[in-house]
Design goal:
OB fold (Dihydrolipoamide Acetyltransferase, E2P); elongated; six-stranded mixed sheet; Rossmann fold; 23% helix; 2 domains; alpha+beta
């Protein structure tokens, strides 16, 4: 078993009082792929480095496979790590780079050769084993870094933004390859990224971090569909979730949005007459050029053809709203269009705390 248990981990930045991680607790099951997602400075890389043993916490504990490793050096934790930079030896051939960790561990040469061939076959590197890194593309060099990590038969695989140096198309292609490789290996994996597309496509569970804390932990669909607060909804999604000011009627039966009344969903748990923030994804806003019952009028400001859809920025009673319309939808700036919200796709947030309002 190689589960990871992180308990109440605190790390303060040197020379200050600001916490890089602030009482973080997280459990990663054996074989689970967990992604730490968040903006720069949220503490995700610091948390990964503490699991790796490259930094020590001020308080709290880390256990791998039930063994307390909080203050053990990296070489006593049975982990492998893939860094943001390729970190390959430029003067050594691919074969040597992949087997370097095994060589340092004094593994017999025959075993090193066998594992290097196995990893090279898995990552499609066999034709390049006798090349130098300078003779490889960026994607191939990143494959070398991954191959070097997986040959170590480690309990845990740690990855710190390993795809960030690749161009967009190569990053997307290698992302799917990486997911397949990790699934085949069944290795417990902790992966750091600021890219929400990577997080949603790779992770079995996603921990969204902000200011040293985990703002939300859940499977990708849960985190995307039901953000725990406005930060998570605004950080995840392209475009991010719309947040629209709304008011609940005195009897709690209707919702006032953009000067128009909508039926208040039964899940909305708040007292009548209060203001709330309505959250809705761009793809969940239905759009039409003709008025229909319950639809809200909006003025088109920007039209962005995206190929598979048309992204509209519209003005809804002074509030900017993103709408993802079908690719055949035709409109121009200053046109009036009509928006409809499906009750089961609306989420509601407290105006003061920005936290999701609980369902009744």
């Amino acid at each position: 078993m190689a589960d990871i248990s992180i308990s109440h981990l605190v790390k303060t930045y040197p020379g200050g009082t600001e916490r890089a991680t602030d009482d973080v607790s997280l459990t990663i099951e054996d074989g689970q792929f967990t992604v730490l997602l968040g903006p720069s400075g949220c503490g995700k890389t610091t948390l990964l480095r503490m699991v790796a043993g490259l930094e020590l916490p001020d308080s709290g504990s880390i256990a791998i496979g039930g063994r307390d490793v909080t203050y053990l050096p990296p070489n006593k934790r049975n982990i492998s790590m893939v860094f943001q930079s390729y970190a390959v030896f430029p003067h050594r051939k691919v074969r040597y780079n992949i087997g370097f960790g095994l060589l340092m561990a004094k593994v017999p040469k025959e075993e090193i050769d066998r594992k290097v061939r196995w990893a090279a076959d898995l990552l499609q590197l066999e034709p390049y084993l006798d090349r130098l890194p300078a003779q490889l593309s960026g994607g191939q060099r990143q494959r070398v870094a991954v191959a070097r990590a997986i040959v170590m038969d480690a309990d845990v695989l740690l990855m710190d933004e390993p795809l960030s140096n690749l161009d967009a198309l190569l990053r997307m292609n290698f992302r799917s390859e990486l997911k397949g490789i990790v699934q085949d290996l069944g290795t417990t994996t902790l992966y750091v990224t600021h890219d929400q597309s990577e997080a949603l496509s790779l992770g079995d569970q996603v921990a969204v971090m902000r200011k040293g804390r985990i703002a939300q932990l859940g499977d990708p669909l849960e985190v995307y569909d039901a953000p725990a607060d406005q930060f998570v909804g605004g950080f995840i999604g392209a475009p991010p979730m719309n947040f629209i000011q709304a008011s609940v009627s005195g009897d709690g039966g209707s919702l006032l949005v953009g000067g128009q009344k909508l039926l208040a969903p039964s899940m909305l748990s708040t007292s009548g007459g209060s203001d709330v923030m309505l959250g809705i994804r761009a793809e969940n806003v239905a759009v039409d050029i003709q008025r229909s019952s319950g639809a809200l009028p909006a003025t088109v400001r920007v039209v962005e053809p995206m190929g598979s859809s048309v992204l509209l920025t519209v003005d809804l009673d002074g509030q900017a709203v993103k709408v993802q319309a079908p690719p055949t939808f035709r409109t121009e700036p200053d046109d009036t269009i009509w928006l409809s919200f499906s009750p089961n796709t609306m989420r509601f947030y407290d105006n003061e705390t920005a936290m999701a309002l609980e369902a009744k």
